[in-house]
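Fold this sequence, please.
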Amino acid sequence: MLHLIGVNHRAQVRERGYEDTHCQRELARRLRRAVSDFKLSFVAEEYYEELLVQRGEESIAKEIALEIGIEHRFCNPNNEELCEIGCLDLNTIYWMLRRPNNGCLSLSEIKVQAQAILTARYSPIRERFWFDRLGELRGRDGVFVCGDAHVESFARFLGANQIATNVVARGIGFVPGEGEETRETMKYLSEHPELANWEA
C-alpha cells in the first residue's frame, strides 16, 4: 500500500542551516507517525535532488527516512527528464500562451489557463514518471509526499494500476485561502476539458 501525504511544496524542504518552520515540523511529525503506525519501509517524494543542490535546500522526507533507517527515493523528473518525457513547466506554458494571445485573454486568465494545462495535460505524464521511478518499491508499503493537488489524481492512477492507497494527510503547509488557486484551476478545467489535449 502507498500512503499519500499532500503538501504545499514549501513544507518539503528547508534552506540549509535554517531551523524548521511550523509546516516543516508538521510534515516531519506526520511522516514519523505514518512510518511507525503502518510499519513502512520507504519514503518517496515529488522532488529531485539536483534542485535541492541548486537551491541549497534539504529534504525533510529524506532526513526522516535516514533518521529512521528506511529507504528514501526522489521521484520527480529533473529538467533533462522533463524534456525526454515531453513535459513543459508552468512558466513555459504561461509564456507560450502569452505570445500568440491576440488580446483575447487577460493576463490573469492566461495564468489560470496555464495552470489548467499543466494539471490536465502534463500532471498525468509526471505521475506516470513517479510510478515508474518507484519501481520495485511498488511491491512494498511506503509513503509518498506530493503536492496536494496531485493526491486525488495520483491515487486514481495508482488504483488503476492495482496499488492500494491511503491518504494520511492533506494540505500541510497551506495557509487559509491558499487553496483558492487550485479550486479556480479545477473550475476552469471543468469549463475547458479540451485543455487535456493541448499541444505546444
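The chain has a mean pLDDT of 92. The two ends are 36 Å apart (CA to CA).
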